[in-house]
Amino acid sequence: MDRIYRYRMTTTSGGNLSIRDDNGDIWVTPARVDKGKLTRNDIVCVRADGTIDGLHPPSSEFPFHKAIYQVRPNIHAIVHAHPVALVAFSICRQSPNTRLFPQAHSVCGEVGFAPYACPGSEALGKSIAGTFSAGCDSVILENHGVIVGGPDLARAFERFEAFEFAGKILVKANQLGEVRFLNDDQLQQAAARGVDFVSYAPAAASAHELELRKQLCEFVQRGCRQRLFISTEGSFSARVDNHSFLITPTQNDREKLCVEDLVLVQGDQRESGKQASRASRAHQAIYEKHLQVQAIVFAHPVNATAFSVTNESLDVRTIPESYVFLRDVQRVPYGIQYRDDDRIADFVSAKNPAAILQNDGVLVTGSTVLDAFDRLEVLESTAEAVINAGAIGEVSVMSSDVINEHGTAFNLN
């Protein structure tokens, strides 16, 4: 709940969480307690026999939590809240199409829509339970908000966060033009991607490697706070030497990464006991072709990803910082980064450090971890400014003469 509140995905009074334990008891957030100041002692236990143990009454929405658990034995945690993008879909009586990019579709699961009933009522519980019993995992509540379920609270939170992120991207993308969704074959292409590294035990880490591990963790966590990453999406790597690099692991909560979680990759080998990101081969191809690249980010920030799911090009000749940092942003056809032919490395260079990946976010390279992160921030800020400008008037980019002036002033030629 602390993360949900900090990320402004609920309000002081809105939303509720629950966990069903192995005894059948349901632990749920309390009614009428500030969501920004909850402690573990505030959580209420509703026993399987109906008795209540806690300092407060359980959430008034407890009936629909109970109803979902009754129809879905595989669900052990539930998140309900009122994040603004999904509420927008709720009050338009629509459900987001999560086929925007592969990770959104796989994490969110089956999407459904539950007809309106009064909050806290048995009728609402029946409506929601009916939608979940049909196999849905992420459900829009008509004129109310969203509810998601998962096998544990971490997975339920990740599903909730990814669903809201997909909703935000759709809202932004619809301001740009027609949204392009992925078909079954394209989704399968991403799902079939694997990393065939052999496990090995590397030598003790050097001071340089330890510093890179620290930097990567700090910037991934900062990226989560800045909403450039979410817990289930994106990869960040740093070159250790000409033969090895560090990269974020797969299926780990990005905000909770620690230095020991990062994976050292060398050739066809990866650090034993860990699973490297499924994007590792794409990172490796870029490092091998471009020796000046020292750090790489694949990410799905909302505004830049909105460009990736439409046919609109992102022209960064908006303000000096955007052009100097990003130059001309390339567009990568869908699926290039999943292939084994190393073609992804052809879309970035010293003069083109960033690219939009069709229906899969963005790729950014840098001369340091800080440089790559800075460019990611600039790319997302530029994309947001361009989208916002569309509500004001026609975007006016800098002229060729101005661009040439920047090239001379900042030695970009």
From TrEMBL:
TM spans (from-to): none
Residue ranges of domain Class II aldolase/adducin N-terminal in the record: 3-171, 214-387
Annotated Gene Ontology cellular component terms: cytosol
Keywords recorded for this protein, A-Z: Lyase, Metal-binding
GO MF annotation: an example: metal ion binding
GO BP field: pentose catabolic process
Entry-linked InterPro entries: Aldolase_class_II_sugar_metab, Aldolase_II/adducin_N, Aldolase_II/adducin_N_sf
E.C. no: 4.1.2.17
One Pfam family this sequence matches: Aldolase_II
Name under which the protein is recorded: L-fuculose phosphate aldolase
Organism in which the protein naturally occurs: Bythopirellula polymerisocia
Taxonomic classification: Bacteria, Pseudomonadati, Planctomycetota, Planctomycetia, Pirellulales
The encoding gene: fucA_1
